[in-house]
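To whoever picks this up:

The parser on our side crashed when reading a file containing two proteins. I've narrowed it down to the boundary between the first structure block and the second sequence. Both blocks are reproduced below exactly, byte for byte. First block:
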Amino acid sequence: ISHFSSKTRGGEDPPTHPHPLYHIYARSNLRPVASSFDLRFPLTQHNITMADEAPPAAAPAPAAAGTGAKPEKKEKKAPPKDLVIPPKKPKLSKAERRALQEAQRAAKAAGGGGKKGGGGGGAGKGGKKKVDVHKGEAGSGGAGGGSSRKAAAAAAAPAVDPSMDKSLPSFSHLQQYRDPKHFEEEFSGISLGASNSVQNFHPAVLSLGMQYASGTIRGGNARAKAMLRTFQQVIRDYEPPAPSSSSSSSSRGGGKEDDVRHDLDHRIIKPAFQYWTTKCRPHSVSMGNAFTFLKLAVASLDRDMSVEEVKEILVDTIDAYIHERIDIADEAICKHGSSKIVDGDVILTYGCSSVVEVLLTDAAQEKGADTFRVIVVDSRPLLEGRALVARLADAGIECTYILLNALSYVMMREVTKVFLGAAALMSDGSVLSRVGTACVALMARSNNIPVLVCCETYKISNRVQLESITVNELGNPDDVISARCAMNGAASTAADGKQIDSVLGNWRDMPNLKVLSLLYDLTPSEFVSGIVTEMGILPATSVAVLLREMNPQDTNTAFMGSM
């Protein structure tokens, strides 16, 4: 091609060339941009130009700065004269937002919550002034909206738990601990008996809520059993509502108001569960799964059943669930777990797990109490391991009691196996349990000691959790700074018999001090050697398979979380 380029410029006839574009190029007025070109790059419109074609005209240069010419600017349209632009709403802190919500709830309850028009647009008589005061954030756009919100927050500030504004920002999304001492009316049910109240609960529901909030009932199994037993009592005392005139004049079969299943679900079961979880304490995974089972049991009832038949079937169904999914499951777990205990074992456990306690006592009765030894690791503020050590010692088992800070000294020298309890199992095999469990599992993993987690299958959650911050529960911050055991209230005493007060007793008055009381942590599946369930001992990676086999109808949603 280089030879072709030089010959054509001299006026000679170009020689024959095998390339198909050679003759086309020689007979036309095309000329290459460069002196030579490579056949690897085909001739296109971008690398050739016509000989008679003038180069494109250059773009007009911008006007010189000295000429004084300025580009025209588009004039902004003025807003209409009748348009009112509201001012920006002031931002409220988290404590002020909570105080505002509490004030709105109190105003709704005091002014008769049945006046639905008063909350939205002030249509109800007598409640218009209260609505205007507490509805500043959703006002009509006046400048007084922000001031009314501030006034409402300041007026309701004394009703807020003092510990709410002392939470850490990383855990501010969690439901804050509500001390029953600061919300006596809500927990006692006095305000719930007012006219036009949202719900009048059964006394058993209020009693259980107080026990949840005060920590009298702890543990996944204990909380789920107490909830189901309370529902049994409520169902036994259930009376259907009297049929209204509209429903009596309707066609035979009635509507939802005549359906016992609908009334039980929406008036009895669901409001009670919401009261426990929102007012008292967030529900555990075991409570959530048991509640879901009860709702399905109510929905599967025949519509034509009488009220007495519905009561009998639901009570028997709850008994069967407790017996099969908790009691028999614990017996099977004990059988599978005790098979791993051999003579001379030193078993370590953490806290107080009911299923681990039954496993150890059954193994002592079957193999002899002198065949193995137990080390119970405990931690503040609950110190739950004290009760476990006392019961194991009464069963004749040799025990050692240590705190969590001494774990490394006994783990590397004596321990041969670790048995732990669980509050929930995630679908990826991670274990949610009392705070400190991850430390124990990590230390065992570093010393090549097997870790067996004992957990019933009804505690399996379809969620996937990677850390302990997104989903967790906050406890009473006073338990952390207290010098006494938060479990039984046994105060520390000095030599003269006087009670020792905590140095941080006035921590709420210290502006630079925040107290965190987390109840759970997450143990990754890599630190778990096996999961002991009623189905057998499984690897942590098989939890998702077990969940899919137990709930085949939820296969498509097995890995979709909700909390």
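<<boundary where parser fails>>
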Amino acid sequence: HILRQRIALLPLLFISLNSVEARDVNLINMAHFVASNAPLASILETDSNTKKSPTATKIIGTVGLQTQSKEKLEELLEAGMTTARFDFSWNTQDYHQRTLDNLKEAMAKTKQLCAIMLDTKGPEITIPKKLDTVFEITAGSEVTLTADLNVEASASIMPVTYDKIADAVNIGDTIFIGQYLFTGSETTSCYLEVVSKDATSNTVVCKAGNCASLGGIMLTVILANVRNELPTISDEDVNNITTWGVKNKIDFLSLSVCRCEDDVLKARSILKSCGLTQTKIMAKIEEKVGLTNFEKILDTADGIILSRGNLGLDIPPEKMFLIQKFILERCNNANKPAVITRVVDTMCDVPRPTRAEATDVANAVLDGADCILLGAETLRGLFPVETVKTVSLIAKEAERKYDHVKHYDHIVKRITSGVERVPGKFDQSESMASSAVRACVKCSASLIIVFSQTGRTAALLAKYRPPVPILAVFIPELQTDGLQWYFSGEVQARQGLMHRGLFPILADPGRTVATPGDVNMSNGDVLQQDALKWALERGMIAPGDRVVVSQKLRESSVIKVVEA
């Protein structure tokens, strides 16, 4: 799985393994795997390490339907879900609010932090249908798509929410229809081939390529290799952001079908206009045009979600693995979270993944993914808790074989050689982060503790992928909006849950408080002891273990090694 070829810095759309440019530094060198000479049977042995080292890779769960109750949400949090995704492609604000209210109760009971992500509908084409209806499609049958929404949907004719459907497609094009958050199963999705179209009546006649039972809460339509003209951010999206998003102070905005940097800039402008200046934008790459503009999207967004389901319908399947490795590598270098979707589809119906799916999760971790996003598996799947547990266990096993030293050297080499957007030298924060990770390896520390207000230093530490957990203690900062005083830190802590290996906690405001503009932390020893106690109580470290501590004291940055 290790690709060592060098490739030229070309748009992703034109990737070629034969492209070579001497100044590149192993762009496709992501699968950092540690080889072992141990007997193969040793792999099956139980890990003798008694420390409860948490899984570094984060898990985003789409919540609702099967996972709306407080009890089920508690189970998801205990299983390892770190971010809850609210998909506004379906249902109402009131429905999602009930789910979020239950999640807040679950968080309070389990004492688990969980970030909140609002996922926009975007330029999605759907087929209006009754909830309990199922359309049986047979291979070779004729299916007509129409822009007339007054037509009642059936197996032979389906209305679509795109009034330019006939103009958008050509004879021979492929149209994909599947239930909301489709899994790719041929029984729940159908490939249609366009055989004729009529611009006057705005209808498209297709031939079904496979048999399918189209049901579920909603049917989505994807025009393969065709860009529809619907806006990336719809009026409905704006309303959801400026009302539900503001009310709940969302941590992340998942920008569906992000096509260019202007989409990100528009989303940021909307967030700013309604006071959500701290909300981070995760750009979802779902179409070929998003790949073409990927570099600029990465520059403007706060993170990337590689939506492999939709994107897989827009590009040749043999290119998917390479695109995944390329995007994860770029995100790692830019220190922006990278999220992978569609990993264990079959767990919607069975409690165990396929061999290919288990391997896929592990390879995503070895490629450098920060998070795994679960869609249908946790929303409408029959085994949502088991899915989170299984993905977490697979990711943890892959992390044990991740070559942290190789990754560290790779990042350092890129910075010192001045590749791409990074300067040819370390700034102070980068120096501190890299030095803390190096010290951790040299002294065989079991934990890194970092004190932070904005989360930037903690994220930089995570960039270097240390072999141990990073406990990020977020210091409350006293702020005011002109009307009242409040403590910051909660949003920044939850946003830290998007970074692999980062485990954020909030410092007790009663123990130490930072005033506006003050980056020096008082009572540093008290905070350090609190953090060590927290880690000891949870089994992350054992008495006598070495711990690397990174903090800022007045104008100086300090790295020290202490014993638990």
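After patching the parser it read the second block fine. The chain has 17 helices and 24 strands. Residues 335 and 463 are 6 Å apart (CA to CA).
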